[in-house]
Structures are given as C-alpha cells and as structure tokens.
Amino acid sequence: MANGDENDQVRELQARLRQLKLMSVAPTGFYGSKTTAAVKTFQSKNGLTATGSVDDATWKKIQSASKKPTADELRPSTVNEVDAPDPRCMTGRVMCISKESRTLAWMIDGKVVSTMDVRFGSENTPTREGVFDVGWKAKEWTSTIYHTPMPYAMFFSGGQAVHYSADFAARGYNGASHGCVNVRDKGKLSALFDQVQVGDKVVVYW
Predict the structure, then answer these.
(1) Does residue 2 lie within any of the structural domains?
(2) What are the catalytic residues (predicted)?
C-alpha cells in the first residue's frame, strides 16, 4: 500500500494506526499525506526503513501490534476531525473542504469559525478540486439533472454545490453524492448558509 491507493485494506491500515494512536482521523480508505506520515512514524519506531509505504514486513508488524478492527472502527459514526487547513484557506472568507478528513471548515482570516462532516461524489461523478468562488445560493433547490432536493445549496463550480443531504444524514458514508459536497448536520449548515456570501472562496483539496 502506498500514497494514492484507495481500498478496504487501506481502511483497515488506518483503523489499526488509529488504535496505535498514530492517526486521529477516522478511516477513509484513501492513502494520503496523513497515512504516509503515520506509517513513517511507525516504521522509524520499529526499526524499519521509514518509506511511508507499507511493504510486507511493515504490514506484518502493524498487524501484530494491533487487533483486527471492528466494524465501528472501520466506519465510525463519530464526527470527523478537521485537517490542518490548506495554505489557500488562510486568508479571507473560505469554505475549506478536505477530502482526506472529509470535513468542511468555515474560516475567516485564518480562524476556524465552524466545522462539519461532508461527503463527496463517487469515482464516476467526482467532486472537483481546486479554488472556486460561491457563484450563487438557494435555500430551497431541486437538482435539475437528478431531481433530488438540495436545501441550503451554495454553488461553487457549475452544478456542484455545498448542500444538505437527507441521504447522508440517514446512510452516512455508505452513499455518495453526484459531485456535490454533502453535509448531514442541517442546523450547522443552516447557520453557515446565513453567513456565507456570494463571492466567498471555496477550496477543495486532498
């Protein structure tokens, strides 16, 4: 396993690293910078070459140092822990959206005002990454393509928006969006919707 991989074995690796207090974020199944750093730490503590990738020797050592993760450890329902913000989020008014920690942080001048769990599009309808602006907002909106309700929609890239998802609230990470950034906490999103203005920045990053 190495940086860029995405599968259930990576999810198990992350759950085991979390047991070993080397990762604080919930398992996502995506091998990104946090997983690489945690693996490097484990390797250097255990006399292995600190490559940040998991070879056979590293995997065996991690398995023997931890126990088989439970279903809840693999897919915890708890709130995700926010990543260190991307440098592009540190100025102005920004919805700072991390795909690795699956969080949205509303930031003003480098300070986090509020945070919430989010989920993204599937492989077929991925959420675009980069720096965008909020183009327009709609408190009540129904997707013209998918005919699904999109309350508290804040559009940032074509038809992609941050919005409340009843499906995400009900099913969690067992589903995916059609490319939008779904939020499951309606109360938090309603408060955010009132604060965000057209023209505010949106940063989506791994």
Answers:
(1) no
(2) 163, 180
